[in-house]
């Protein structure tokens, strides 16, 4: 992911979705010594390696 700013809702949704994927035995994208899927997802998010995009409706 790029360095764009995410709202707190987007951040929560991305980390939550990735945590669920990890809990369901999806491959972990970083090298970490933790079994906590939420912690792993947070670190992946901070490193920018989560393959999830955010689509925003830009209307005025």
From TrEMBL:
GO terms for biological process: transcription by RNA polymerase I; transcription by RNA polymerase II; tRNA transcription by RNA polymerase III. It is found in: Cytoplasm. Transmembrane segments: none annotated. The keyword rRNA-binding does not apply. One of its GO terms (cellular component) is cytoplasm. Keywords: Cytoplasm, DNA-directed RNA polymerase, Nucleotidyltransferase, Transcription, Transferase. It comes from the Archaea. One of its GO terms (molecular function) is DNA-directed RNA polymerase activity. It catalyses: RNA(n) + a ribonucleoside 5'-triphosphate = RNA(n+1) + diphosphate. The keyword Nucleotidyltransferase applies. Its EC number is 2.7.7.6. Part of the RNA polymerase complex. DNA-dependent RNA polymerase (RNAP) catalyzes the transcription of DNA into RNA using the four ribonucleoside triphosphates as substrates. HAMAP family: RNApol_arch_Rpo6 (MF_00192). Belongs to the archaeal Rpo6/eukaryotic RPB6 RNA polymerase subunit family. PANTHER family: DNA-DIRECTED RNA POLYMERASE SUBUNIT K, DNA-DIRECTED RNA POLYMERASES I, II, AND III SUBUNIT RPABC2. This is DNA-directed RNA polymerase subunit Rpo6.
């Amino acid at each position: 992911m790029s360095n764009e700013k995410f709202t707190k809702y987007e951040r929560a949704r991305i980390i939550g979705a990735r945590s669920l994927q990890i809990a369901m035995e999806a491959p972990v994208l970083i090298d970490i010594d933790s079994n906590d899927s939420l912690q792993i997802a947070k670190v992946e998010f901070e490193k920018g390696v989560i393959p999830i995009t955010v689509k925003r409706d830009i209307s005025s």
